[in-house]
Amino acid sequence: MLTKQRLATLAYAGIGAAASVFLGFPLPLLLGPLFGLLAAALAGLPMQGMGAVGMAMRTFLGVAIGSTVTPELLASLPAIAMSLLFVIPFTAVVGAAGFLLFRRLGFDRRTSFYSAMPGGLQDMLIFGEEAGGNVRAMSLIHATRVLVIFIFVPIAVTAFWGLDLRRPPGQFAAALPHHEILLMVAAGLVGWWSALKLRIPGASLLGPIALSAALSLSGLINSRPPVEMLWAAQFAIGIGVGVRYSGITAYEVRAYVLSGAAYSLIVTVISVALIILITIILPVEPLAATLAFLPGGQAEMAMIAVIADTDVAYVIAHHITRIFLVILFAQLFAKWLASR
To answer: Exposure of 272 by Cβ count < 10 A (0-12 exposed, 13-18 middle, 19+ buried)?
Structure first.
């Protein structure tokens, strides 16, 4: 339902996007809405997420990833097995460092653990709430982790690789077969619905990935989603991160956002060290490794990979592995808490 608060949210996001386009920022339709909503939140203006409509637009990113899956790509997956093994110690080290930091800052064990685990925001909030953690603290800490890394990555990509992240990410709808566009939309919505029914984490992304990959392998889809669909996905992702700061207070900025920023810096340092190591010992493209190991959000990093035209399968495989490990750790931690 399009409430007054949702209309206001769209207006703040639209102003942020327009300003970012005018100023020439990288990823203007992704970072612009985020900055617009962050400014509105700090000003105390009311906001509301886009609900199912926002999630539906996020499915376009899943379709963009799935449409890159080809038989040749599947044949190359065993070559990244060694790289995927590094996700295990990386997740453990990042989680331990974050847990120790948050405990030192005075958070309880439950909140510290679920805030430190570099997994999907929604999944960590669900597990953390069930365990009795501080939901508002976890929400703002994870949103800040995504925000800080998300701002860092476009700057790094532009500075080190010279990529223009303002260019259209593909072809416009008029240049693509209409039946393929319809199949893409259907793959996104049906894949999302199916993943929800199966209770798969990250349903709005993983479900469309699986279904659109099947359509790509069968030859029914031979191109990526049009620019318009990817722009809509960027806009929705930017809103999804920015709206997390709705109703934020000065105390929450000091207690939660600054804690999340400190954690983000630690995560970035650990990630960069690992990325350098991996690019030295393995034949991995530095840009792909950067987007694969920086835990700035599965959808966010995947979107940058699509726009930068790097190895999307490599990037998403690492994020899926990380999220699987985090969910496993979360369940083990929950059982340990129950035993105590």
So the answer is: middle
Tokens encoding 164: 């223009």
Does the predicted TM-score (pTM) go above 0.90?
no
| Residues above pLDDT 70, as percent of the chain | 99
Q: What is the mean pLDDT of residues 261-290?
A: 94
Provide the residue count of the chain: 340
pLDDT of the residue at 271: 95
- What confidence tens digit (pLDDT) does each residue in 221-256 have? 988 899 999 999 999 989 998 999 999 999 999 999
Contact between 281 and 85 under an 8 Å Cβ cutoff? The reply is no
- Nearest-CA neighbor of 40 among 3, 11, 4? 11
Q: What span, in angstroms and rounded, lies between the C-alpha atoms of 63 and 176?
A: 15
Whether 323 contacts 297, CB under 8 Å: no
Residue closest to 60 by CA, chosen among 163, 183, 214, 194:
183
Q: 93-141 pLDDT, tens per residue?
A: 999 999 999 999 999 999 999 999 998 777 788 788 888 899 999 999 9
C-alpha–C-alpha distance, residues 270 and 15, integer Å: 35
Residue 340 confidence class, pLDDT cut points 50, 70, 90: low
CA–CA gap between residue 119 and residue 325 (Å, rounded)? 8
Q: How far apart are CA 311 and CA 7, in angstroms?
A: 37
Q: What is the CA radius of gyration of the chain?
A: 19
